[in-house]
Design goal:
alpha+beta, two-stranded antiparallel sheet, 2 strands, 28% helix
Length: 78
């Protein structure tokens, strides 16, 4: 069973890495949900184009957008 080092490093078992397709030098992401940590190998280009359908409204400044987001959040509070 893997143990966490003093530097909070974890060595994953080789058979688990093979099953997940994780190779030395691969970049991984980790997520915490319900007290469990999930480690996922990052796929190069996996996010490419996922926001391509969105277009910026050039008539709205960053500050206006930020203020709108703050006001919307305040309105939704119970």
């Amino acid at each position: 069973m893997p143990k966490i080092s003093a530097k909070r490093q974890l060595t994953l078992p080789a058979n688990q890495c093979r099953s997940a397709g994780i190779e030395p030098g691969d970049e991984c992401r980790s997520f915490v949900a319900d007290g469990r940590i999930t480690i996922v190998r990052q796929q190069p280009g996996s996010a490419w184009g996922c926001l391509a359908h969105l277009r910026a409204d050039e008539t709205v400044s960053d500050e206006q957008s930020r203020q709108h987001a703050i006001e919307t959040k305040r309105e939704r509070r119970p």
